[in-house]
Amino acid sequence: MAKEKFYLTTPLYYVNDVPHIGHAYTTIAADTLARFKRLAGYDVYLLTGTDEHGLKVQKAAKEANLPPKDLADKVVVTFIDLWKRLSISYDDFIRTTEKRHKKVVLEIFNKLYEKGDIYKGEYEGNYCTPCETFWPDAQVKDGKCPDCGRPTERLKEESYFFKMSKYQDELLDYIKKHENFIQPISRRHEIINFVKEGLRDISISRTAFKWGIPIPFDKKHIIYVWIDALTNYISAIGYLEDKKKFNRLWPADLHIIGKDILKFHAIIWPCILLAAEIEPPKRIFAHGWWTVEGEKMSKSKGNVVDPYEMVDEFGVDAFRYFLLREVPFGLDGDFSRDALINRINSDLANDLGNLVSRALTMVKRYFTGVVPRPDKEEREDKELKSLASDILPKIEKFINNLQFSEALEEIWKLVRETNRYIDHSQPWVLAKDKAREKRLGTVLYNSLESLRIITILIFSFMPVSSEKIWKQLGIKERLDKKTLESAKEWGRLPSGIKIGKIEAVFPRIEVKKV
Ligand code: MSP
Questions:
Q1: pLDDT at 489 over 80
Q2: Is the pLDDT of residue 2 over 90?
């Protein structure tokens, strides 16, 4: 039977600057879900890329004294490199300056123009370049952008407009009929209320700069960067050039985005698609924002968290773990080194790292590194077994709802329980009594078996460390080729195999006292 597809996307990141923690966050979340769905047997397609046109990038290029495309070529490498270091398993990376993309933007533009959904007019109002957003006067106070608070620019220029007002009812209807279309639920309400107040036609071209896709029949107009960028979700999967692929993957199963770009995704994008007679995506999930030590992150404050530094200092998986564990996905969170170090030391080094090293060390010491055979089952064995073999459906539910933090919390119940099981069974005492060797074997087998299940469950979150643990367990089959189902099958760890070389997976971070 053909596998069911799962097409998910990250936003396309602006290339005006190098990546920061916010970019890493969205992408790590998408990667975790993608990995989990692959293990669950889906034919997953994860798309990411860069948003390279528009005034914001043009301005940054000017400051860097480079042509915009050169700046894009330079910055895109930092994204690609970061995704590699963060173990992002994307299937395609699209740049909006690519031909395959530009063609589709023009196709959609023409389609809407011919249909009469795009008309020429004049835009008078404000523009926020950092947000690449048009703001009508009524929403702007003291010339400041209502979203980011930075100064807007006053515009009065000829512009093409998209008749978004025409799609208001259809969009509302779509949202209401598709309960999961916009998540979390608070965001859904926000959008419903916004749409109910009435949608205006939106300006979709600019004449004041050059960096973008010109309208073929009116070349002084550059297509609005958001219309350009949003189209990537269909251009990348062959809307024009590979209909078979497109029909297999579209509609997208999920767009993961930050809350700041929800209106573009939940209003403008579906309206464009409705106008182009293409089905809207199935689901859009808007996550929250990170502040840093209680403050908004900004270059001028100098508090931008550099994901490269985090990976160098703490390791890729500790960083991935922290971002997804610390804050429920969908809510805002605060980043601090202290919080990160606490998580590493308590959850990773103390709980999981300790479990790995003590369980394996005892197998090495008491059974010459050969996984023992379990014997008679006692009450506490049964309890551990039932906890471990019943955990998967809960985790699946959480992850499918993008409740990463809750999923990890649940996995950690098993980690702690396994540690408790060892404490309580006291293998070091059993080892002193030859008559209790079978019991000792049972306890250690069960500890490793629980660890095997834990390792499968954390793979999507911490791909590098889980592979290390897997290797130490001595299992020959590849972890990334395992099916999730095997996490339900207690007893799959073969007795008699030799465990691998024991190495610390999560070293403790020593905090220097000042
Ligand atoms: N180019 C647009 C998206 C176009 S999608 C067709 C864009 N790019 S961005 O580079 O500014 O931001 C991309 C993502 O980073 C967004 O999802 C945004 O929410 C996220 N973050 C940026 N700063 C963030 C935080 N401080 N915290 C969490 N995520 C944040 O928008």
A1: yes
A2: no
Q: Using one digit for the tens of pLDDT, what is the confidence trace for 126-178?
A: 999 999 999 988 889 999 999 888 999 998 999 999 999 999 999 999 999 99
- Whether 409 and 416 have beta carbons less than 8 Å apart is answered as no
Ligand 1 in reach of 227 Cβ (< 6 A): no
Query: Of the candidates 404, 401, 408, which has an alpha carbon nearest to the alpha carbon of residue 185?
Result: 401
Q: What is the distance between the alpha carbons of residues 229 and 252, in angstroms, rounded to a whole number? A: 16
Residue 51 beta carbon below 6 angstroms from any ligand 1 atom: yes
For 396, residues 6+ apart whose C-beta sits below 8 A from its C-beta are 40, 484
Residue nearest to atom 22 of ligand 1 (CA): 22
Complete domains list, the chain, with CATH = 337-487 (1.10.730.10)
In this prediction, residue 514 has a pLDDT band, given cuts at 50, 70 and 90, of low
Q: Which residue has the tokens 């669950």?
A: 40
Alpha helices in 276-403 (DSSP H): 307-314, 316-326, 337-343, 354-367, 379-389, 391-400
Secondary structure of residue 78 in the 3-state scheme = helix
Q: Which tokens belong to 45?
A: 């397609």
CA angle centred on 27, ends 21 and 30, rounded to 5°: 140
The pLDDT confidence band at residue 289, using thresholds 50, 70 and 90, is: very high
Helix, coil or strand: residue 13: strand
The residue nearest atom 8 of ligand 1, judged by CA position, is 13
- H helix runs in 67-184, sequence order: 68-85, 99-115, 168-177
CA of 21 from ligand 1 middle (Å) equals: 10
Among 18, 273, 289, say which to mutate for ligand 1: greatest number of ligand atoms within 8 Å of CB. 289
Query: CB of 14 closer than 6 A to ligand 1?
Result: yes
Task: Determine which residue's CA is closest to atom 14 belonging to ligand 1.
Answer: 23
Distance in Å, CA 332 to ligand 1 centroid: 14
Structure tokens at 482: 């395992």
Opening angle at CA 407, ends 401 and 409, nearest 5: 145
Q: Which of 288, 278, 203 is nearest to 234 (CA)?
A: 278
Q: In this structure, what token pair is assigned to residue 44?
A: 């997953």
**394-418 pLDDT per residue, tens:** 999 999 999 999 999 999 999 999 9
Contact status, residue 263 vs residue 89, Cβ threshold 8 Å: no
Ligand 1 site-directed mutation target among 58, 257, 269, 272, most atoms within 8 Å of CB: 257
98 alpha carbon – ligand 1 mean position (Å): 21
| SS3 state at 183 | strand
Sequence letter at residue 502: I
